[in-house]
Automatic annotation (TrEMBL):
The keyword Membrane applies. Residues 26-230 form the TLC domain. Coiled coil: none annotated. Keywords: Membrane, Transmembrane, Transmembrane helix. It is a multi-pass membrane protein. This is TLC domain-containing protein. Pfam families: TRAM_LAG1_CLN8 (PF03798). It is found in: Membrane. GO terms for cellular component: endoplasmic reticulum; membrane. The chain crosses the membrane at residues 39-58, 79-99, 105-122, 129-148, 160-183, 195-219. It comes from the Eukaryota.
Length: 243
Protein backbone atom coordinates (compact mmCIF):
# COMPACT_ATOMS: atom_id res chain seq x y z
CA UNK A 1 0.00 0.00 0.00
CA UNK A 2 2.77 2.43 0.92
CA UNK A 3 4.66 1.72 -2.31
CA UNK A 4 1.54 2.14 -4.45
CA UNK A 5 0.56 5.43 -2.82
CA UNK A 6 4.17 6.67 -3.02
CA UNK A 7 4.18 6.12 -6.80
CA UNK A 8 0.68 7.57 -7.19
CA UNK A 9 1.69 10.68 -5.25
CA UNK A 10 4.79 11.09 -7.44
CA UNK A 11 2.89 10.77 -10.73
CA UNK A 12 -0.04 13.00 -9.73
CA UNK A 13 2.19 15.67 -8.16
CA UNK A 14 4.56 15.85 -11.15
CA UNK A 15 1.57 16.53 -13.44
CA UNK A 16 -0.62 18.71 -11.24
CA UNK A 17 1.79 20.81 -9.13
CA UNK A 18 4.39 22.99 -10.84
CA UNK A 19 6.31 23.44 -7.59
CA UNK A 20 6.95 19.67 -7.37
CA UNK A 21 9.31 19.70 -10.34
CA UNK A 22 11.32 22.52 -8.73
CA UNK A 23 12.10 20.46 -5.62
CA UNK A 24 15.40 18.68 -5.12
CA UNK A 25 15.49 14.87 -5.00
CA UNK A 26 15.34 14.64 -1.20
CA UNK A 27 12.35 16.99 -1.05
CA UNK A 28 10.58 14.93 -3.72
CA UNK A 29 11.15 11.76 -1.68
CA UNK A 30 9.68 13.43 1.42
CA UNK A 31 6.78 14.84 -0.62
CA UNK A 32 5.90 11.35 -1.86
CA UNK A 33 6.54 9.83 1.56
CA UNK A 34 4.02 12.17 3.14
CA UNK A 35 1.45 10.91 0.64
CA UNK A 36 1.19 7.45 2.18
CA UNK A 37 1.66 8.98 5.63
CA UNK A 38 -1.52 11.01 5.08
CA UNK A 39 -3.50 8.01 3.79
CA UNK A 40 -2.52 5.85 6.76
CA UNK A 41 -3.43 8.65 9.18
CA UNK A 42 -6.91 9.05 7.69
CA UNK A 43 -7.61 5.30 7.69
CA UNK A 44 -6.21 4.76 11.20
CA UNK A 45 -8.19 7.68 12.65
CA UNK A 46 -11.43 6.59 10.96
CA UNK A 47 -11.15 2.93 12.05
CA UNK A 48 -10.13 3.89 15.59
CA UNK A 49 -13.01 6.36 15.93
CA UNK A 50 -15.49 3.78 14.66
CA UNK A 51 -14.33 0.99 16.97
CA UNK A 52 -14.03 3.11 20.11
CA UNK A 53 -16.90 5.59 19.71
CA UNK A 54 -19.50 4.07 17.36
CA UNK A 55 -19.35 0.30 17.67
CA UNK A 56 -20.30 -1.43 20.90
CA UNK A 57 -17.02 -3.35 21.09
CA UNK A 58 -15.80 -1.38 24.12
CA UNK A 59 -19.21 -0.57 25.63
CA UNK A 60 -18.99 -1.70 29.25
CA UNK A 61 -22.61 -2.92 29.28
CA UNK A 62 -22.56 -4.65 25.89
CA UNK A 63 -20.28 -7.61 26.67
CA UNK A 64 -19.47 -9.85 29.60
CA UNK A 65 -15.70 -9.82 29.04
CA UNK A 66 -13.52 -7.09 30.54
CA UNK A 67 -12.55 -4.21 28.24
CA UNK A 68 -8.86 -4.99 28.20
CA UNK A 69 -9.57 -8.43 26.66
CA UNK A 70 -11.84 -7.18 23.85
CA UNK A 71 -10.71 -7.18 20.22
CA UNK A 72 -12.10 -7.69 16.73
CA UNK A 73 -10.92 -8.70 13.28
CA UNK A 74 -11.00 -5.01 12.32
CA UNK A 75 -8.68 -3.93 15.15
CA UNK A 76 -6.33 -6.82 14.31
CA UNK A 77 -6.32 -5.76 10.64
CA UNK A 78 -5.74 -2.09 11.50
CA UNK A 79 -2.82 -3.00 13.75
CA UNK A 80 -1.28 -5.08 10.96
CA UNK A 81 -1.61 -2.22 8.47
CA UNK A 82 -0.17 0.26 10.98
CA UNK A 83 2.86 -1.93 11.72
CA UNK A 84 3.46 -2.13 7.96
CA UNK A 85 3.20 1.64 7.64
CA UNK A 86 5.51 2.42 10.56
CA UNK A 87 8.02 -0.16 9.33
CA UNK A 88 8.01 1.34 5.82
CA UNK A 89 8.27 4.91 7.08
CA UNK A 90 11.03 3.94 9.51
CA UNK A 91 12.96 2.33 6.65
CA UNK A 92 12.64 5.52 4.58
CA UNK A 93 13.80 7.64 7.53
CA UNK A 94 16.87 5.43 8.03
CA UNK A 95 17.70 5.42 4.30
CA UNK A 96 17.65 9.23 4.12
CA UNK A 97 18.59 9.97 7.73
CA UNK A 98 18.28 12.65 9.00
CA UNK A 99 16.54 14.38 6.05
CA UNK A 100 13.12 12.77 6.65
CA UNK A 101 13.25 12.95 10.45
CA UNK A 102 15.65 12.86 13.37
CA UNK A 103 16.05 10.68 16.44
CA UNK A 104 12.65 11.65 17.86
CA UNK A 105 10.97 10.06 14.84
CA UNK A 106 13.01 6.89 15.29
CA UNK A 107 11.88 6.73 18.92
CA UNK A 108 8.25 7.45 18.02
CA UNK A 109 8.08 4.81 15.28
CA UNK A 110 10.03 2.26 17.31
CA UNK A 111 7.80 2.36 20.38
CA UNK A 112 4.70 2.55 18.17
CA UNK A 113 5.59 -0.71 16.41
CA UNK A 114 6.48 -2.31 19.74
CA UNK A 115 3.17 -1.37 21.41
CA UNK A 116 0.99 -2.23 18.41
CA UNK A 117 2.82 -5.53 17.86
CA UNK A 118 2.45 -6.49 21.53
CA UNK A 119 -1.29 -5.76 21.45
CA UNK A 120 -1.72 -7.65 18.17
CA UNK A 121 0.12 -10.77 19.36
CA UNK A 122 -1.39 -10.82 22.87
CA UNK A 123 -4.92 -9.70 21.99
CA UNK A 124 -4.86 -7.31 24.96
CA UNK A 125 -5.38 -3.55 25.42
CA UNK A 126 -6.79 -2.95 21.93
CA UNK A 127 -8.84 0.02 23.14
CA UNK A 128 -5.75 1.83 24.46
CA UNK A 129 -3.83 1.26 21.23
CA UNK A 130 -6.79 2.46 19.14
CA UNK A 131 -7.01 5.66 21.16
CA UNK A 132 -3.32 6.27 20.54
CA UNK A 133 -3.76 5.49 16.83
CA UNK A 134 -6.57 8.05 16.65
CA UNK A 135 -3.98 10.75 17.35
CA UNK A 136 -2.80 10.20 13.77
CA UNK A 137 -5.75 12.43 12.80
CA UNK A 138 -3.38 15.41 13.21
CA UNK A 139 -0.89 14.06 10.64
CA UNK A 140 -2.68 15.42 7.51
CA UNK A 141 -2.45 18.94 8.98
CA UNK A 142 1.27 18.46 9.70
CA UNK A 143 1.83 17.24 6.15
CA UNK A 144 -0.20 20.04 4.56
CA UNK A 145 1.87 22.55 6.53
CA UNK A 146 5.04 21.02 5.09
CA UNK A 147 3.62 20.94 1.54
CA UNK A 148 2.66 24.63 1.70
CA UNK A 149 6.04 25.51 3.17
CA UNK A 150 8.14 23.90 0.41
CA UNK A 151 5.71 25.25 -2.20
CA UNK A 152 6.44 28.80 -1.02
CA UNK A 153 2.90 29.37 0.26
CA UNK A 154 3.62 30.32 3.87
CA UNK A 155 1.94 33.70 3.42
CA UNK A 156 -1.36 32.37 2.05
CA UNK A 157 -4.51 32.14 4.18
CA UNK A 158 -4.63 28.34 3.86
CA UNK A 159 -1.29 28.11 5.70
CA UNK A 160 -2.72 30.14 8.58
CA UNK A 161 -6.04 28.24 8.71
CA UNK A 162 -4.21 24.92 8.60
CA UNK A 163 -1.98 26.06 11.46
CA UNK A 164 -5.00 26.90 13.60
CA UNK A 165 -6.62 23.55 12.72
CA UNK A 166 -3.36 21.76 13.62
CA UNK A 167 -3.24 23.56 16.97
CA UNK A 168 -6.86 22.71 17.84
CA UNK A 169 -6.57 19.14 16.55
CA UNK A 170 -3.34 18.54 18.47
CA UNK A 171 -4.86 19.95 21.66
CA UNK A 172 -7.89 17.64 21.40
CA UNK A 173 -6.35 14.46 19.96
CA UNK A 174 -2.90 14.46 21.54
CA UNK A 175 -3.34 16.34 24.83
CA UNK A 176 -6.95 16.08 26.06
CA UNK A 177 -7.41 12.54 24.68
CA UNK A 178 -4.27 11.37 26.50
CA UNK A 179 -5.57 12.87 29.75
CA UNK A 180 -8.80 10.90 29.23
CA UNK A 181 -6.85 7.73 28.39
CA UNK A 182 -4.73 7.94 31.55
CA UNK A 183 -7.88 8.62 33.59
CA UNK A 184 -9.63 5.63 32.01
CA UNK A 185 -6.57 3.47 32.73
CA UNK A 186 -6.56 4.60 36.37
CA UNK A 187 -10.21 3.67 36.91
CA UNK A 188 -9.60 0.28 35.20
CA UNK A 189 -6.26 -0.38 36.87
CA UNK A 190 -7.47 -3.75 38.16
CA UNK A 191 -8.02 -4.88 34.55
CA UNK A 192 -4.59 -3.61 33.51
CA UNK A 193 -2.94 -5.54 36.34
CA UNK A 194 -4.69 -8.73 35.24
CA UNK A 195 -2.62 -9.06 32.06
CA UNK A 196 0.95 -10.30 31.79
CA UNK A 197 3.67 -8.24 33.50
CA UNK A 198 5.35 -6.92 30.33
CA UNK A 199 1.97 -5.86 28.96
CA UNK A 200 1.07 -3.94 32.12
CA UNK A 201 4.33 -1.99 32.32
CA UNK A 202 4.19 -1.34 28.57
CA UNK A 203 0.67 0.10 28.96
CA UNK A 204 2.05 2.55 31.50
CA UNK A 205 5.43 3.36 29.92
CA UNK A 206 4.67 3.67 26.18
CA UNK A 207 1.76 6.17 26.42
CA UNK A 208 3.78 8.16 28.96
CA UNK A 209 6.71 8.52 26.55
CA UNK A 210 4.38 9.43 23.67
CA UNK A 211 2.57 11.94 25.91
CA UNK A 212 5.85 13.71 26.71
CA UNK A 213 6.68 13.89 22.99
CA UNK A 214 3.18 15.24 22.26
CA UNK A 215 3.58 18.01 24.85
CA UNK A 216 7.00 18.91 23.42
CA UNK A 217 5.63 19.15 19.86
CA UNK A 218 2.53 21.01 21.08
CA UNK A 219 4.79 23.67 22.58
CA UNK A 220 6.56 24.06 19.23
CA UNK A 221 3.19 24.31 17.42
CA UNK A 222 2.01 26.95 19.89
CA UNK A 223 5.16 29.02 19.37
CA UNK A 224 4.72 28.67 15.59
CA UNK A 225 1.12 29.93 15.77
CA UNK A 226 2.15 32.91 17.93
CA UNK A 227 4.99 33.81 15.55
CA UNK A 228 2.71 33.57 12.50
CA UNK A 229 0.09 35.88 14.01
CA UNK A 230 2.82 38.28 15.14
CA UNK A 231 4.29 38.47 11.62
CA UNK A 232 0.85 39.03 10.08
CA UNK A 233 0.00 41.73 12.60
CA UNK A 234 3.32 43.45 11.91
CA UNK A 235 2.80 43.12 8.14
CA UNK A 236 -0.71 44.65 8.31
CA UNK A 237 0.64 47.45 10.50
CA UNK A 238 3.36 48.24 7.98
CA UNK A 239 0.85 48.14 5.09
CA UNK A 240 -1.38 50.55 7.01
CA UNK A 241 1.48 53.00 7.46
CA UNK A 242 2.36 52.76 3.76
CA UNK A 243 -1.25 53.48 2.77
Amino acid sequence: MCGAVYEMTRKVSSRCFKCYNLLNNTQKVEWNNRGFSTLHALVAAAVSFYLVMISELFNEDAHNSIIIDRKSWLSDSMFGVSIGYFLTDLTMILLYFPSLGGKKYLLHHGISMYAIGLALLSGKAHMSILMVLFTEVTTPFVNLRWYLDVAGQKTCNLYLYNGVALFVGWLIARIILFIYMFTHMYFHLDQARSIFTLGFYSMVAVPSVVAVMNVFWFWKILKGIVNTFSRRKHSHSENGKTD
